[in-house]
Every structure is written in C-alpha cells, then in structure tokens.
C-alpha cells in the first residue's frame, strides 16, 4: 500500500513541477515582452520613438525633437557593461560624428564613464525606458537616425568605428534607409 501511495505522490509532484514550469516560462516570456516594449528592433525606415532624458552637462531635460534636422546615432550603453566602458574610452579619443550616448544607470554612474567630447551628448536613461522603446535589448547597441527622424540601422558595436560606419551607411543624398548590421 505504501508503494502505491508513494508512486501516486511522485506522479502528483511531477505534474505540479510541469505546471509550475509551464507557468513560469509563460510569465518570463510576458515579462520579456513587457520589458522590451516591442520585443525586437524597430523596422528600418520607421519613425524613431520620441523620448525625453536628463542631460547632466546642461542640467536640463532633452527631448528627441531637439535632435531632428541632422543625422545622428544613439549609442545605448550600461554602466555595468565592460564592452561599453571600452567603447566610451575610444569615443573620448576619436569621436568624429554627431553622437548621443544614452546611458542606463544613475547620473553619477554614467558621468563616471568619462568626459565626452563637446559634440557628444550624454543622456541618462536610469530606468531603461528609452532603450526599451528602441528595442535595444543588449548593451552596447547603436541606432542610426536620419535627418527626418527615421531609423536607418541597428548594430552592436564593439568599436567606435562601427558606430560611425552604421551612421554613414546611407548612399543616397536624400537619406534613403540602408540596412546596416554590425558583427556581434
């Protein structure tokens, strides 16, 4: 009799584990979808999402509308990312194109990444909301934006030159969108 009871309990425990596993995987999937907002990159040539973020150098909030009218790249970095730190050091030495660094972390953590050249703007994205809107699920991620405020390309840069190449991927004077993917 005790063998039958133990066998029954084993079956019940197995079913319970299966149900918990299925429920947990579904919840993790929903959490991932909610975290990313869109779950992946935005389509090329789609309008870039609007955003506002704090800029430590000016002490003011910056709205994405103030960036329109010129081509630029958003570089999403995180203070806990070692590749991001190396990339930031390289930017300090060779930044040559309009660039907006969107840093996931506190103002103190982000400004500790180093002094940036004057034409590179640092914006604080402490909660990761801007990264979510752009589908930047990993760090670093670069997003090239056209003069008309459209997505030109995405990439996972390992060097600053990768960001420059992504940003200058357009071959047409009217800023046609060119899909530019960077090697991971």
Structure commentary:
The chain is α/β, with parallel strands linked by helices and 184 residues long. The chain folds into two domains: 1-36; 52-167, 3-Layer(aba) Sandwich (Glutaredoxin), CATH 3.40.30. 36% of the residues lie in helices and 20% in strands. It has five helices and seven strands, in the order αβββαβαβαββα. It has a five-stranded mixed sheet with strand order 5-4-3-6-7. The protein has a two-stranded antiparallel sheet with strand order 1-2. It is elongated and about 75 Å long.
* Rg, nearest Å: 22 Å
List the total number of helices. 5
Shape: elongated
What fraction strand? Answer: 15-25%
Average per-residue pLDDT, rounded, comes to 77
Low-confidence stretches: 27-39, 170-184
CATH topology call of the largest domain: Glutaredoxin
- Structural class based on helices, strands and sheet pairing: alpha/beta
Strand order of the largest sheet: 5-4-3-6-7
> Could you give the distance between the termini?
60 Å
CATH architecture of the largest domain: 3-Layer(aba) Sandwich
- Topology pattern, helix = H, strand = E: HEEEHEHEHEEH
CATH C-level label of the largest domain: Alpha Beta
Walk me through the topology:
Layout lengths: L1 H35 L15 E4 L4 E4 L8 E7 L3 H13 L4 E6 L2 H5 L8 E5 L4 H6 L6 E5 L5 E5 L4 H8 L17
Parallel strand pairs: 3-4, 4-5
Antiparallel strand pairs: 1-2, 3-6, 6-7
């Amino acid at each position: 009799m005790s063998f039958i009871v133990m066998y029954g309990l084993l079956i019940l425990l197995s079913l319970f584990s299966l149900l918990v596993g299925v429920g947990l995987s579904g919840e993790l999937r929903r959490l991932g979808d909610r975290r990313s907002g869109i779950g992946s990159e935005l389509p090329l040539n789609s309008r870039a999402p609007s955003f506002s973020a704090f800029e430590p150098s000016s002490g003011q909030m910056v709205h994405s509308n103030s960036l329109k009218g010129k081509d630029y790249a958003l570089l999403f970095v995180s203070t806990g990312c070692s590749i991001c730190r190396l990339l930031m050091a390289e930017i300090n030495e060779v930044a040559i194109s309009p660039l907006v660094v969107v840093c996931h972390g506190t103002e103190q953590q982000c400004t500790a990444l180093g002094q940036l050249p004057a034409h590179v703007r640092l914006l604080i994205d402490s909660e990761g909301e801007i990264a979510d809107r752009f589908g930047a699920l990993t760090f670093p991620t670069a997003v090239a934006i056209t003069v008309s405020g459209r997505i030109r390309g995405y990439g996972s840069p390992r060097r600053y030159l990768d960001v420059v190449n992504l940003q200058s991927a357009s071959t047409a004077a009217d800023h046609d969108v060119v899909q530019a993917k960077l090697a991971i």
